[in-house]
From TrEMBL:
Keywords: Aminotransferase, Pyridoxal phosphate, Transferase. Its cofactor is pyridoxal 5'-phosphate. Its EC number is 2.6.1.-. It catalyses: L-aspartate + 2-oxoglutarate = oxaloacetate + L-glutamate. Homodimer. GO terms for biological process: amino acid metabolic process. This is Aminotransferase. The lineage of its organism: Bacteria, Pseudomonadati, Pseudomonadota, Alphaproteobacteria, Hyphomicrobiales. Residues 32-392 form the Aminotransferase class I/classII large domain. It comes from the Bacteria. It is an enzyme of class 2 (transferase). Belongs to the class-I pyridoxal-phosphate-dependent aminotransferase family. One of its GO terms (molecular function) is pyridoxal phosphate binding. CDD domains: AAT_like.
Length: 400
């Protein structure tokens, strides 16, 4: 067989996707699996978004789209950035792609030469490092320890930047920890970036609307306007509007960078589905009450799971400000043996034992670049969370 490209050698299938796959296999055998591994809202897409897509299809909006986003979509994104982030962009400062993931992929491909470094606060979403490696770049991980609330400390950021640094990636609220940055936290990060004029910042704000206890979300270009020309602000409709399957993400940034990203976007897709764009316009421009309603449901779930975890000996969970994840520390269980006879030496052993012996799917911290932790997603029903917590409690209690 002819060989595949060398550039794929360091790129792996995501651990959360692998765990979701294992959960599906067990379910196919008739086993009742509790899936706490998927980062996907369990709510439906808002009806007005679905109706807008249907109306667009009936009206004949089914031809090739403009490559970088329809004028209506760009206008809705510009309104969103102004309304929610106090950021002003022109249409030539916006690109629409097939999900936030594709925005990041395009941005990295458009800018990274082999050997260029991308500073990634860890733990982090599994795809960042793989995307950077795909482009021949070098991911540089900067630990955001639990005792710093899983936030990026200015001194650690400063120490990670070298003459080869091309990007800093930010993702607060964070996947997998749920940590979010206050304005003061963000201002400290911005202060460092002001000192490095050759480095861009990509801020992945996909969890913007999932913050709890009156926490106020902020984004770096708004906090420090002097960075406006070096910040790519990325967002999408997947998490906020429960539109993961529609595949739409977007970004706003400086004109020249956007032109380069738009070029890559035009080469690797013929633009984003017209029907998806019609739905996303309706989501961004339509009633926003559902964001608050859903965020309050997520908060109830977060508090429930935190309460249950607090009762489990051997686990310690930091209270996250946002997203729909909890990232418990399981270091106290290292060295124990499960009821099924599995020796727990790592967080991988812990999550594998949990899924095989108690059929609860979670993801090991190692997948996100920080051990010994595991990620619980509470983007699922209270019934599932209750059952999942019961099983996790039993699993830990039975360890010797
Ligand atoms: N960024 C982060 C931090 C995520 O966790 C995810 C999905 O899990 C994405 C981006 C991908 O979003 P999209 O569905 O828009 O591609």
């Amino acid at each position: 067989m002819p060989a595949t490209a060398d550039r794929l050698k360091n790129v792996s299938i995501s651990a959360s996707a692998a765990m979701t796959q294992r959960a599906r296999e067990l379910a196919a055998q008739g086993i009742k699996v509790v899936s706490l591994s998927s980062g996907e809202p369990d709510f439906p897409t808002p009806r007005h978004a679905i109706e807008a897509a249907y109306a667009a299809a009936l009206a004949g909006d089914t031809k090739y789209p403009t490559m970088d986003g329809t004028p209506a979509m760009k206008a809705a994104i510009i309104r969103k950035f102004k309304r929610e982030n106090n950021l002003t962009y022109e249409p030539n400062q916006i690109v629409v792609s097939g999900g936030g993931k594709q925005v990041i992929f395009n941005a990295v491909l458009a800018t990274c030469n082999p050997g260029d470094e991308v500073v990634i606060p860890a733990p982090s979403w599994v795809s960042y490092a793989d995307i950077v490696k795909f482009a021949g770049g070098v991911p540089v991980s900067v630990p955001c320890p639990e005792n710093a609330g899983f936030k990026l400390r200015a001194e650690d950021l400063e120490a990670a930047i070298t003459p080869r640094t091309k990007w800093l990636f930010l993702n607060f609220p964070n996947n997998p920890t749920g940590a979010a940055c206050s304005r003061a936290d963000m201002a400290a990060i911005a202060e460092v970036m002001l000192r490095h004029p050759n480095v861009w910042t990509l801020t992945d704000d996909i969890y913007e609307h999932l913050v709890y206890d009156d926490f106020e979300f902020c984004t770096i270009a708004e906090v420090e306007p002097r960075l406006y020309d070096r910040v790519l602000t990325m967002n999408g409709v997947s998490k906020a509007y429960a539109m993961t399957g529609w595949r739409l993400g977007y970004c706003g940034g400086p004109k020249d960078l956007i032109a380069a990203i738009s070029n890559v976007n035009g080469q690797n897709s013929g633009g984003t589905s017209t029907l998806t764009q019609a739905a996303a316009v309706a989501a961004l421009d339509g009633p926003q009450d559902l964001l608050k309603e859903r965020s309050s449901i997520y908060k109830t779930r977060r508090d429930y799971v935190l309460g249950r975890l607090a009762e489990i000996q051997g686990l310690r969970a930091h209270k996250p400000e946002g997203a729909f994840y909890i990232f418990p520390n399981m270091s106290e269980l290292i060295g124990k043996t499960t009821k099924g006879g599995r020796k727990i030496e790592t967080d991988v052993d812990f999550v594998m034992g949990l899924v095989e012996e108690h059929h609860v799917a979670t993801v090991q911290g190692a997948a996100y670049g920080m051990s010994p932790y595991f990620r619980i997603s509470y983007a699922t029903s209270m019934e599932m969370l209750e059952e999942g917590c019961n099983r996790i409690a039993q699993y830990c209690k039975d360890m010797k």
